[in-house]
Amino acid sequence: TVPKEPAVLRQNILDTAAAILACGIDPEKCLLFQQSLVSEHAELAWILGCLTNVPRLLRLPQWKMKHASQNNEGTVGLLTYPVLQAADILLYKSTRVPVGEDQILHLELAQDIAQHFNKKYGEFFPVPKAILSEL
Prior knowledge:
InterPro entries: aa-tRNA-synth_Ic, Rossmann-like_a/b/a_fold, Trp-tRNA-ligase, Trp-tRNA_synthetase. This protein has helices at about 5-20, 40-50, 55-60, 60-70, 75-90, 105-120, and strands at about 95-100, 130. By secondary structure, it is mostly helical. It folds into 2 domains: about 1-30; about 40-130, Rossmann fold (3-Layer(aba) Sandwich). Strands 1-2 form a two-stranded parallel sheet. Helix 6 links the parallel strand 1 (about 95-100) and strand 2. Helix 2 crosses helix 5 and helix 5 (about 75-90) packs across helix 6.
């Protein structure tokens, strides 16, 4: 949600991929891709955003904290980021999502969006469940 210089962003993407591979992720067993190159993420986020009300997003604690820390100048991207997260989860019809405690409310939003979509258009998205990570 924070603009980056294109060259820095490209390098960050490469560095992240290298770190993932260095952690032992085997590309022969896992699909590794650059999410920003998959237009369906943004397309589904738009559709889901049209089903999500603004007051619900304004109540999320992460928005409140970041909005306040940015002198109440938070961007639309920051406000709608949880909808993009929901699209990231629902696009792949994920059933279990590893999250930390700080992301539970965002996963609950994804669950609510999936249920709302399914009620309106028929059963399409599984309602994802949280797998809480342990520290």
